[in-house]
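Worked problem 6 (solution included).
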Amino acid sequence: MGATLMPVVVESSAPNQRAPLSGERVSAIVQLTLKAQHVKDAMVSVTFLSSRAMARMNRERLGHAGATDIITFELTRPVADAPVTGDMYICSEVARANAKAWGVPVREEIARLVIHGTLHTLGLEHPDGDARVESPMWRAQEKYLRAARRRGLV
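Solution. The predicted structure is:
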């Protein structure tokens, strides 16, 4: 009996920009994270935005200036047994700049963001600033990133 896959929609509103990871890999990384968190039913969308579209969303939805690497919305479940539902928006341009600044491959940074966004979709949070890298959420994120690497997804 095969594993049950949860719906993951991956799309791009920046058609002239190629995402560093295929939609299949992004979906597999979301699935890996959901399963590691023991989630049995979820619907997640991942949309890649241009920096201009991300800056607009950041301003309109969060009141922040400029483009950011990821914005995640955890949607409220109407009843406790309803699927976990969420949307994440990733800006590849910002992710590329971050990867360069931190000296990591772009594919790794995109995978990290997909995992990070999936964890936020599940309601996990982290503190701001330097403390975030010591948080349980960050440790889980890096653990799942290592698992994604072992599976050849990154």
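Discussion: The two ends are 26 Å apart (CA to CA).
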